[in-house]
Predict the structure.
Amino acid sequence: MKIKLSALAQQFELKLDGNGNDSITGVSSLDKAGQEQLSFLANTKYTSQLKESNAGVIVVTEEMKDSFAGNKLIAADPYVAFAKIASLFQHNDKPVKGIHSTSVIAKSATIEDNVCIGPMCIIGENCHVLSGTVLEARVTIGNDCVIGKNCIIKPNAVIIYGCKIGDRVIIHPGAIIGADGFGLARDVDGWIKVPQMGGVRIGNDCEIGANTTIDRGTMDDTILEDDVRLDNQIQIAHNVSIGKHTVMAGCSAVAGSAKIGKNCLIGGGVGIIGHLEVCDGVTLQSMALVTRSIKKPGSYSSVSPLQETHEWRRSAVRIKQLDKIAKRIAILEKKNRE
């Protein structure tokens, strides 16, 4: 597929500085792009690569346009513009039209027009799958679920009973939506399982990464509001609530009944203790452990930086001594005041 630069500029409302009749056939990085490929520059740290780039066109800001002699598309945010353009060249497997003969669909299920259901899918009783949705191979949907319009559910994803998925949601391979939350009550003779009778509600335009798990609520639902984006291998426990436009990187974990606000950025490996609240507009740096509620927007970090082992051991000894040192200082300050 070839697309003229003039057409790109018009479609994405970008300013073109160069030859509109030139075309591209794909996208690539600055250092690897060829004459028929588009690249972008969003970080001034890589400005020096512009002079050596062979890209047919580069998306840049107005301030950086003079750093490249070739064709340029001017954008307020080159990364956002690049993401939109790159989607035109994205490879997607063509879904099987209609319903594959090996799929098993309950008679009480409602499948709207233009739904594609791939091989060996299972759809339970009283499910409702709305128009334009694609279920790829081996997707399992339990009883009483609702799947919105134009969703893409990839192979081996499982949506357990009573869950509601909004429109334009992408669920990647191996994701589990609606497994039981980890609810246990201690009895005299051992643990008693607390029934998990809520569901999961996922809003519009969300994305759930591969092998990510979202547990059902104990009584009320676990909730993801619109445009929440979860990376791979994330654990969302029962009755968690996540606000609009929040994103979480891989291997993060949120314990039960925690509430995360809107527009939060959560780095990889972050842990959030249960029953806490994180307000809107919070950034949690990678590997942070949240042990108290956060009520003020901003960037938060924890965990010591990496050290050589012998230095870390010495630091660990000093940390153990801090309480004694603090008490000695308090005694000295008291004597000094006297």
